[in-house]
Design brief:
This protein has helices at residues 3-7, 15-20, 44-52, 76-91, 132-136, 177-181, 192-299, 305-315, 336-353, 357-364, and strands at 33-35, 41-43, 57-58, 65-66, 117-119, 124-126, 145-146, 166-168, 173-175, 189-191, 382-384, 390-393, 413-414, 423-429, 436-442, 459-465, 469-472, 478-480, 488-494, 499-504, 509-515, 522-527, 540-543. It is of the alpha+beta class.
Length: 548
């Protein structure tokens, strides 16, 4: 659809098309074209320099100003069209009229003059003087003159040396009359002039279609730009709302912390007051006891028996003795419940935060492991890559040694790495496959004969059938409704928690989680399923997990 437009690109009718492929800054054909959010396109380097040398980011055409410098991506469709035009300009296509002075007369013997015409029969170019015989002599009556053309030799049949004056519509090729009678006999062949007329009839339609395609893509670029801006604004609002919510929570926590600290200080002051009263009473009793001890010391030295007996019996025989053994100061602030509530609040917040799929997936990706396929378990028709990262199903049964580890009936393979504890995560690219199985399997599964994929038989897996039927292989199986077709599946195993979870990595959407109790070593499980005459021939690829 593009070639007919370019073949007439230099004609007046197609000048508009060429202008629409020109950058309005450098006035040349686009190089790495990018489009601004307002829909206008420029060379990536041109608009970059324009914005680098300015304090504002403004569209050079409509003058729309962008508050934040947009991230511009190359428009691949526009780049391909511009590249084809540039290749056309530089390739010297035989039908491209020469620029003035580029084609010289083939018959000038001295200084060659500029050609004014080329003869498609003579396959030569002529200046004003040497072209005159073509106008005057009958011998040149049937010759065809055209504007000066470069590379006239390309118009000769390389097999027969005759002019390419015919066109084969079946093979879409220019041929000579001999070709039409020999190798192209029976094909629909017409004179080149007739085919040119027919193609020119399509030129306007083709040009209109190309222009429509360009406009549709420019509109789509503008739409995408608007969606990106809308997403950016939405993200900014979410960030502001989140900051406001976090700030409110933090202020509340700070206020509660202040109240708690004040409560602790008040309790400490109460303890100190109680302790002070007890110490005062103890000191008073100690003073009294010391006084009596001195009196007893003095009494012990008296020689007056009557005085001793009377005094001791009346004042010291029955001393008041307070029991202080059970007296204490309560230092328990009874705030353990507060600590428990605060800790529980923190855990609850973390659990709620992890319900956001993007955050959950980002956190479990830290448990990424290097999984490779075990060729000793692979079904005979499975073809594994040398690095053990890809598996697809072939049409021929391979001569592989049988062993208790190998699946002999189902197109399955296990990973080399087995897990009997901890958390583990890996990703599998399923691409555009119409059928596949993924999950984990316990070590003791039956690998011979027909297998039933369910937790009862040691499989925790999901599958795709017929391009759109997703199921979690529970017992009975559970249909899964996915709004977006996953191209990459994340598999997460938490052995202690008894969970196997599946995620759409591209959209960070949770697909399904199995919950069970594991007692054996578990292995990653893969099945690219049947080839289906090539419609499901693509591989399953264990992809490296990059932190996002």
């Amino acid at each position: 659809m593009i070639a007919p437009l370019f073949s007439a690109m230099a004609s007046p009718t197609s000048l508009l098309s060429e202008k629409q492929l020109q950058c309005s800054i450098c006035l040349d054909i686009f190089t790495n074209p990018v489009s601004t959010p307002c829909g206008h396109s420029f060379c990536q380097a041109c608009i970059g320099r324009a914005w680098d040398n300015s304090t504002t980011c403004q569209c050079p055409l409509c003058k729309e100003t962008f508050r934040i410098r947009p991230d511009l991506s190359i428009n691949r469709v526009l780049a391909d069209i511009a590249e084809q035009l540039m290749n056309f300009r530089s390739s010297g296509v035989e039908d491209c009229p020469a620029e003035p002075g580029e084609v010289l007369c083939d018959f000038c013997t001295g200084e060659k003059l500029q050609a004014v015409k080329s003869c498609l029969v003579c396959l030569a170019s002529y200046c004003e003087a040497h072209i005159q015989p073509h106008y005057q002599e009958n011998a040149f009556k049937r010759h065809r003159l055209t504007d000066p053309v470069k590379k006239l030799g390309d118009r000769l049949c390389k097999m027969h040396g005759r002019i390419l004056a015919m066109f084969c519509r079946r093979d879409q090729a220019c041929i000579c009359h001999i070709c039409a009678e020999t190798s192209h006999r029976g094909h629909e062949t017409v004179p080149l002039e007739e085919e040119c007329i027919e193609q020119k009839k399509q030129l306007g339609k083709t040009e209109a279609e190309v222009q429509l395609m360009i406009q549709e893509r420019l509109m789509k670029m503008k739409e995408i730009g608007e969606l990106v801006e809308l997403s950016k604004n939405g993200t900014q609002r979410e960030v502001e709302d989140s900051l406001q919510a976090f700030t409110s929570v933090m202020r509340s926590l700070e206020r509660s912390q202040g109240e708690l600290i004040e409560l602790l200080k008040e309790k400490q002051r109460a303890v100190e007051r109680t302790a002070g009263g007890l110490v005062y009473e103890l000191q008073r009793e100690i003073t009294e006891l010391q006084k009596r001890s001195s009196e007893l010391e003095h009494l012990s030295h008296t020689e007056d028996h009557f005085h001793f007996v009377q005094t001791f019996a009346s004042r010291y025989s029955n001393l008041h003795n307070k029991d202080w053994t059970s007296v204490t100061v309560d230092t328990d602030h009874c705030l353990g419940e507060v600590k428990r509530i605060v800790s529980q609040l923190g855990w609850s917040f973390q659990e709620q935060l992890e319900t956001v799929p993007e955050i959950k997936l980002k956190r479990i990706r830290q448990y990424a492991v290097d999984v490779t396929l075990d060729p000793n378990t692979a079904y005979h028709k499975l073809i594994l890559s040398e690095d053990g990262k890809q598996v697809r199903v072939g049409n021929v049964r391979q001569a592989l040694p049988d062993s208790p580890l190998r699946f002999d009936h189902c197109p399955c393979v296990l990973g080399k790495q087995g897990f009997h504890s901890g958390r583990h995560y890996w990703e599998v690219e399923v691409g555009e496959k119409t059928d596949w199985d993924l999950g984990v399997a316990r070590e003791s599964i039956n690998r011979k004969g027909q297998n039933t994929l369910s937790p009862k038989y040691g499989y925790w897996a999901v599958w795709l059938r017929n391009g759109s039927e997703y199921k979690a292989l529970t017992s009975p199986s559970l249909p899964l409704s996915l709004s977006t077709k996953p191209r990459r599946i994340g598999v997460y195993l938490d052995y202690q928690a008894g969970q196997v979870s599946f995620y759409n990595v591209d959209t960070s959407v949770h697909i399904h989680t199995f919950t069970d109790t594991f007692t054996e070593k578990l292995y990653p499980f893969f099945s690219p399923y049947l080839n289906k005459y090539g419609s499901n021939g693509g591989p399953l690829i264990i992809s490296p997990v990059g932190l996002r």
